[in-house]
Write a structure and sequence with these properties.
By secondary structure, this protein is α+β, with helices and mostly antiparallel strands. 44% of the residues lie in helices and 10% in strands. Helix 3 packs parallel to helix 8 and helix 14 runs parallel beside helix 16. The chain is globular, with a radius of gyration of 31 Å.
């Protein structure tokens, strides 16, 4: 009784009514010590209390920093040393390639990439059956005893996506060669990453196609309206071995590592039982080929960009592997830059595809990394998926659906379609792609309705009515691309109150949410 009197007295001293105070002993566990209005009338009527009690904020536990594996530690050390000493040639690298932890990391990456078998018909599953530890021990022994020899490369032709009748040649090394190539890549890649320019985005760690697209959008917003769309003819097949090895020797001074790279470049190619030994090119499909291609085209990057990302002249270069564009403010600057770039390609003995390379403007539009770019006068920049990309996804959907027999389950078909649609949508969602996504969703539903119509032998009108939008998307959980658009930063339109736009009545326009 005395305790309650003290509580009432303390409440009156703070100008609070005694019935609004909740006793500390009756407070639930985890609730903060805050006053909540609890009148008798609200209790009797069953209304909730006014106010909101905030829970106690617990201090977040500090997470321990993630431990780096030995391979990652080695890469960081090599990168820092190469960054601090730009002119240094590293002469002790072969012993690091032969390390067990490097080979283990190389095997894990090759295994995660899967891939087909080489000329020895040994694939990833065959290596698992043979024994991973045994396989890596034998590779390490061959490397340390200098008995390792590069095998032939199996050449296959795959169809180009969105281009019926056209194929792309791939060179598939053996699994053992892929592991050794990955080990060499882990060791020499940090040395050249310290020299690569920010205008290069392809096949580099922590670099994505979205970054290259953002660089183009930023340049367009800065006033660059003339574009040189550059296309190299069979780039991977025309790389000069002598020039490439000379560029590699700028950083790599280890003779054994250079011999390995030379052996992979000079390795014979087997196609339909015939073996050829090309004197140019790097097999497109090899593990180390993307790194070597970046080393070769780095000679072009260094003449257009500085290490801090600022263009050396008035023209900007954006490159993703062998796809590149030059952006200029005036037509004269674009023409001069295009002539200069062709001279650089001639010095590297590369062939320019004159049919696809052209000088254009943003009004006419250009294509880059699967997107179509266009900007009308006085309008904002627009980018959307190319028609070739749309044909490719429709072709993949058609093949996936028609690979199932008529007695299959529609849920199983949709389980196979959803990852395909998710991957395609995740890449193309960064543009103004909503209209294209509507067409893709309609094509997917039409293909499934056609498959269900054949399954149940019913008219087309009945199939469209029975298995419509709600059945496929809501009930069967078919992936929906519409509504997944996430624009790049430069493509987002500012709210009207930020760019001083006004409505027709003269008042500031209300931003649309």
């Amino acid at each position: 009784m005395q305790f309650e009197r003290r509580t009432v007295a303390s409440a009156q001293a703070r100008h609070l009514r005694p019935d609004t105070v909740e006793l500390r002993d009756n407070r639930g566990e985890g609730r903060a010590a805050t006053f909540i209005r609890r009148t008798k009338q609200r209790k009797a009527s069953g209304l909730p209390p006014q106010g909101k009690a905030q829970p106690r904020t617990r201090q977040a536990r500090r997470k321990a920093p993630a431990r780096l594996d030995n391979a990652r530690k080695l890469q960081r050390t090599l990168y820092r040393v190469a960054k601090q000493q730009p002119e240094r040639r590293f002469t002790l690298l072969y012993d690091k390639v032969c390390r067990q932890d490097i080979l283990q990391e190389a095997w894990q990456r090759v295994k995660s990439n899967k891939g087909a078998a080489g000329v020895d018909q040994m694939d990833i599953d065959a290596i698992r059956d043979y024994g991973e530890e045994r396989f890596l021990s034998e590779v390490e022994e061959e490397l340390r005893s200098r008995r390792y020899r590069a095998a032939l490369v199996r050449r296959v032709h795959i169809p180009k996506p969105g281009q019926p009748g056209k194929t792309r040649s791939l060179g598939i090394p053996t699994v053992k060669d892929r592991v050794v190539q990955m080990a060499v890549k882990l060791v020499i890649e940090p040395l050249f990453e310290a020299d690569f320019m920010p205008c290069s985005f392809g096949f580099r760690p922590k670099r994505t196609p979205r970054m290259a697209l953002s660089a183009i959008v930023q340049s367009v917003n800065d006033g660059y309206s003339f574009v040189v769309d550059v296309d190299l003819k069979s780039y991977f097949d025309t790389i000069s071995h002598e020039l490439l090895l000379g560029l590699v020797e700028r950083r790599v001074g280890d003779v054994q590592v250079l011999r390995l790279i030379r052996a992979w470049l000079k390795a014979g190619v087997m196609e339909e039982g015939k073996v050829t030994h090309p004197d140019r090119g790097s097999p497109q499909g090899g593990v180390i080929s993307p790194t070597l291609s970046n080393i070769f085209l780095h000679e072009v990057d260094r003449q257009w960009c500085r290490r801090d990302g600022i263009a050396l002249g008035s023209v900007r270069l954006v490159r993703y592997a062998d796809d590149m564009v030059l952006l200029a403010r005036t037509e004269q600057e674009a023409r001069v830059a295009w002539e200069q770039l062709q001279g650089q390609f001639a010095a590297l003995r590369l062939v320019v595809n004159q049919e696809k390379s052209r000088l254009t403007t943003l009004v006419e539009g250009f294509a880059f990394l699967g997107f179509e770019f266009r900007k009308a006068s006085g309008r904002m920049l627009l980018m959307w998926p190319r028609e070739k990309a749309c044909r490719n996804i429709r072709h993949r959907i058609r093949e996936a659906v028609r690979s199932f027999p008529s007695n299959g389950q529609v849920g199983v078909v949709i389980q196979k379609l959803n990852p395909i649609l998710n991957g395609w949508c995740t890449y193309f969602r960064v543009g103004n792609s909503n209209r294209t996504f509507h067409k893709v969703d309609w094509a997917v539903r039409s293909e499934l309705q056609l498959w269900l119509r054949r399954k149940h032998q019913c008219p087309w009108r009945t199939a469209k009515k029975r298995w419509g939008y709600h059945f496929l998307h809501d009930r069967c959980r078919l992936y929906r691309t519409v509504g997944k658009v996430s624009h790049l930063e430069g493509l987002r339109r500012k709210p009207p109150d930020e760019d001083d736009r006004r409505a027709g009545c003269g008042k500031p326009a209300r931003p649309v949410r």
